Inverse folding.
């Protein structure tokens, strides 16, 4: 039975059942309550609040204006159609969910890492590898040359859904990575499901935002704000119905490459990661410029992320090369629904 | 096609019956859905629908244009039904003799609506969410306000409810 059949059954039943009580209401006999006039009383604290709010709004507008008109580093916005916007938002949310336990993205983790650095003047990037790691796969999923990323809309092959968007890219080891987004359209809303590995995440898109659900109480709300040379997506992650993390991703097209600027703002710590992908003939490479600072200390630099095949495990690991040439090996999560690490072969060239 | 409810608010204030009819026809499914997810009796549902629209007219000056009229009306319907439910519950607690009378009268002898048989496996909140969305296409963000739950939870409960109904209708009703 399709979702539309269930809806039709319910509509039919309600239309048969609904009583007509219109003639039982005589509008002429109803006493409409007269509105009470509100007295405006001079209130100094209210006036102060209004003044401060106006000042905050003024300076925020000024800041946003400067941000927009001072950025001349890159070119046009990469996502142009609603299909691409819907695809990007659902794929990135699914990637964040797949990437790590939802709890990994909470305030707690970064708060703990901050503790490690209380005594030093500069933060040590080694202490933040665990915080950066969940976003490496996200970068691998969304960064590529734009001719190697495609969003194709077609009819759904899944019962209950009318449309399908197929997102295709290739991983650093040049294997195809595919996400399928099934959805229905209702007025200005879209609702559907994104299939990712053995998991499915429901989503609903309104004119204001997209909500992608991890489970009943954990979800990501994504809203878009356009700026001149990039598209910015704000991600609010909720766990147990409480907001635990607010991040943003700006994506920029530089020549033909899609690059991304990720900002993670948690407690007193701001972590900015600028991700780029270096296309190579064999295995591609990620390059991440980072800037991490808390109220007193900061660090910045550049990390290179390469794949290295682990013979014992039969799969790739990420190897991060830090600015001091120290190498850090971290396991790479499984890649997406249609990517099988067991069949991965180094250097396979995409069709 | 949905109407712009704000266009009719001023006409309600001057007791225009035609405007009221248009509002009534466009909102009755949602009002009905909310009420039957809380009370089951046909007679009570009709009374509560009537009370809802009378309250809406009485309090029309409290509604500010630009807000969401439909969500405001559905909130009145929900509160009206809940007030009745609470009163009914208090009566049960207060008078054991009456309790047995009311209980048997309302829950066993009287035939309820067919739609309630279809949504039988759902709890009260799921019924509200599924009926409002499926029957009247109410926006999820409006439903979230009405049921007082976060948007993500509403989406989750809606999809869970539809899945439950799918299994239920395939196994039970189709037999």
């Amino acid at each position: 039975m399709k979702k539309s059949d269930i809806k039709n059954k319910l509509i039919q039943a309600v239309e048969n059942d609904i009583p007509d009580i219109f003639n039982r209401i005589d509008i002429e006999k109803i006493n409409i309550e007269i509105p009470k006039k509100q007295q405006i009383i001079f209130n100094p604290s209210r006036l102060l609040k209004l003044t401060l709010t106006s000042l905050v709004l003024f300076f925020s507008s000024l800041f946003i204006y400067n941000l927009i008109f001072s950025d001349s580093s890159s070119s046009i916005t990469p996502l142009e159609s609603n299909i691409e916007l819907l695809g990007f938002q659902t794929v990135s949310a699914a990637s964040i969910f797949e990437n790590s336990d939802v709890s990994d993205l909470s305030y707690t983790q970064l708060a703990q890492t901050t503790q490690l650095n209380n005594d030093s003047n500069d933060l040590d990037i080694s202490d933040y590898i665990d915080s950066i790691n969940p976003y490496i796969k996200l970068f691998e999923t969304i960064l590529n040359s734009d001719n190697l990323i495609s969003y194709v809309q077609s009819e759904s092959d899944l019962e209950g859904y009318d449309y399908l968007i197929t997102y295709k890219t290739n991983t650093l080891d040049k294997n195809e990575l595919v996400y399928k987004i099934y959805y229905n359209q209702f007025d200005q809303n879209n609702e559907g499901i994104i299939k990712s590995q053995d998991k499915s995440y429901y989503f609903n898109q309104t004119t204001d935002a997209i909500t992608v659900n991890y489970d009943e109480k954990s979800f990501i709300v994504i809203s878009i704000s356009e700026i001149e040379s990039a598209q910015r997506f704000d991600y609010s992650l909720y766990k147990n119905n409480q907001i635990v993390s607010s991040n943003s991703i700006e994506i920029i097209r530089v020549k033909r490459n899609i690059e991304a600027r990720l900002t993670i703002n948690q407690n007193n710590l701001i972590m900015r990661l600028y991700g780029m992908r270096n296309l190579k003939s064999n295995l591609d490479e990620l390059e991440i410029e980072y800037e991490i600072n808390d109220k007193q200390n900061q660090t910045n630099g550049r990390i290179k992320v390469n794949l290295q095949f682990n013979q014992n495990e039969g799969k790739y690991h990420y190897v991060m090369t830090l600015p001091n040439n120290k190498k850090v090996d971290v396991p790479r999560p499984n890649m997406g629904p249609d990517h099988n690490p067991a069949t991965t072969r180094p250097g396979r060239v995409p069709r | 096609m949905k109407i712009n409810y704000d266009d009719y608010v001023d006409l309600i204030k001057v007791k225009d019956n035609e405007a009221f009819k248009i509002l009534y026809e466009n909102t009755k499914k949602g009002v009905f859905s909310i009420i039957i997810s809380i009370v089951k009796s046909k007679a009570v549902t009709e009374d509560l629908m009537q009370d809802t629209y009378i309250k809406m007219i009485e309090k029309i000056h409290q509604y500010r244009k630009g807000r969401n009229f439909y969500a405001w009306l559905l909130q009145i319907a929900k509160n009206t039904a809940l007030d009745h439910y609470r009163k009914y519950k208090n009566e049960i607690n207060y008078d054991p003799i009456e309790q047995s009378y009311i209980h048997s009268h309302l829950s066993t002898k009287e035939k309820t609506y067919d739609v309630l048989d279809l949504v039988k496996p759902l709890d009260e909140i799921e019924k509200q969410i599924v009926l409002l969305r499926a029957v009247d296409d109410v926006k999820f963000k409006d439903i979230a306000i009405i049921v007082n739950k976060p948007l993500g939870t509403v989406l989750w409960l809606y999809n869970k409810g539809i899945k439950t109904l799918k299994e239920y209708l395939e196994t039970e009703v189709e037999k």
